[in-house]
Amino acid sequence: MPATPTTLHDVAREAGVSPATVSRALTGGTVSPTTRAAVRAVADRLGYRPNRAARGLITGRAGALGLVVPDLTNPFFADVAKGVAARARAADLPVFVTDTDEEAGLEVEAVASLRRSTDGLLLCSPRASDAELLEVADRATTVLLHRRVDGLPSVAADLADGTRQAVEHLRALGHRRIAYVPGRPSSWAGAQRDAGLAAAAADGGVEVVRCAAVAPTFAGGVQAADLVLADGATAVLAYNDLVAVGLLSRAAARGVRVPDDLSVVGHDDTVATMGHPALTTVDVPQRRAGGTAVDLLLRLVAAARTAAGAPSAATPGTEVTLATHLVVRASTAEPRTR
Question: How far apart are CA 97 and CA 303, in angstroms?
Answer without folding.
Answer: 24
